[in-house]
Write a structure and sequence with these properties.
- The chain is α/β, with parallel strands linked by helices.
- 40% of the residues lie in helices and 22% in strands.
- The chain is elongated, with a radius of gyration of 35 Å.
């Protein structure tokens, strides 16, 4: 339809073009040959207007010029749902955020983890338009989170970690109030969520425990057809059974195509739900990516058990146990294993080696897996397991001893 519109426009141009570019010589020749018929040149020019082959190719050129517009539409579909660039926020002399960069794609569950005071809640408050950043930019749905906060909030749902409700209203009344603020919500799904969360909506909010207040916020959020869910410690106060219900709700929202930004202290929850993860420390993003990408640069824990042989004596096992329980990478002091695991400490990528009889435990750099397997080719291996680090181990690896103290 766009090309036809161009042709119609060109049709107007081709009507004007012949009038401006009528050849002078043919007209003069006609006037000389037929001096009494001065009006005929206009009639002869009309067939020329209807059949001008060179000008028929021009609509194709304009149609080709219209193609970049179609390409721009394709680019818009890949625009992140949520994006921050160089986000900075100061509270007096305290630098709460120091260049935070996030990019959350549509339909993605994105984990945002860090200890208390690292900057998670401050980042979320900036995204909600509650506070204004000192530097950098933050956009949701391609709109500025500060200038366009009203229009953005029509498409998002937010669950804080500490929910405060009207004490004189019942839980059901509060849920209905939140639902009426949104044009799209499912009454049947609301009732289903109330049952699944084992929640009594008839009681006054003033009588609710922390966990029940969280249930009010979760039911009100998930029963709406939001495009983006911003969840800041949403399962705080919930028991393990209700945490499982929460995970099912997040999975259903993702199936619908919604985007989820999940900030949580429960690392196993983030590990199970999230497609990508960012770790924030002292207001800076120190690591981002999928869990597989983050594990690629770490070490796996390997446990190897060798089949017992007649040549292995109890004395040899005792030597293995006594001599090979030190960590060369930690102490810097070399040691040598005897018996079945002789020379394992010299294999590239092997760290924290500990030998107990016919069993060896160590950590292994992923890039040296082939070297480790080559060592055990000629061994009588009965059992071998390689376990990648959990998100909690990755998290502790980034924070170390500082994870046990407040940074802010």
């Amino acid at each position: 339809m766009a090309i036809q519109g161009v042709q119609e426009t060109k049709g107007v141009q081709t009507t004007e073009a012949p009038q401006q570019a009528q050849p002078a010589q043919p007209t003069q020749t006609t006037q000389q040959a037929q001096p009494m018929q001065q009006a005929q040149p206009t009639q002869q020019a009309q067939p020329t207007q209807q059949a001008q082959p060179p000008q028929q190719a021009q609509p194709t050129q304009q149609a080709q010029q219209a193609q970049p517009t179609q390409a721009k539409k394709t680019i818009k579909t890949t625009q992140p749902t949520l994006q921050t660039m160089g986000l900075k926020k100061r509270f007096g002399k305290t630098q709460a955020l120091d260049g935070v960069n996030l990019s959350v794609q549509a339909g993605e569950v994105y984990g945002f983890i860090g200890p208390n005071g690292a900057g998670k809640s401050t980042t979320i408050r900036v995204l909600l338009g509650i506070i204004k950043a000192n530097e950098g930019s933050a956009q949701i749905f391609g709109k500025d989170v500060w200038r366009d906060a009203v229009s953005i909030h029509k498409k998002i749902a937010y669950v804080p970690g500490d929910v405060n409700l009207w004490s004189n209203l019942s839980g059901g009344e509060v849920i209905d109030l939140f639902c009426r603020l949104r044009k799209q919500h499912e009454r049947s799904y609301r009732d289903e969520l109330i049952q699944r969360f084992e929640f009594d909506p008839t009681k006054k909010c003033g009588t609710y425990s922390k966990g029940n207040r969280q249930k009010v916020a979760l039911v009100a959020a998930f029963c709406t057809q939001a495009d983006l869910y911003i969840l800041d410690e949403p399962t705080s106060g919930l028991d393990p059974l209700m945490e499982q219900v929460f995970r099912q709700c997040v999975a259903k929202a993702k199936e619908r195509g919604a985007t989820v930004l999940l900030s949580s202290h429960i690392l196993s929850e983030v590990e199970q739900l999230c497609d990508r993860i960012s770790i924030i420390r002292a207001g800076k993003i120190i690591d981002s990516g999928t869990l597989a990408e983050m594990r690629h640069l770490t070490r796996n824990k390997v446990v190897v058990e060798l089949a017992s042989t007649t040549g292995t004596t109890k004395a040899t096992d005792a030597i293995n146990t006594a001599d090979a329980t030190k960590d060369t990478s930690a102490t810097g002091t070399p040691f040598h294993t005897d018996g079945q695991f002789s020379g394992l400490e010299n294999v590239s990528g092997v760290h924290e080696l500990s030998v107990n009889g016919n069993r060896a435990e160590f950590t292994l750099d992923n890039s040296h897996t082939a070297s480790m397997l080559a060592y055990f080719v000629e061994k009588n291996v009965a059992h071998m397991t390689s376990t990648p680090p959990t998100l909690e181990e990755l998290f502790m690896g980034h924070y170390g001893d500082s994870a046990n103290r407040m940074e802010r």
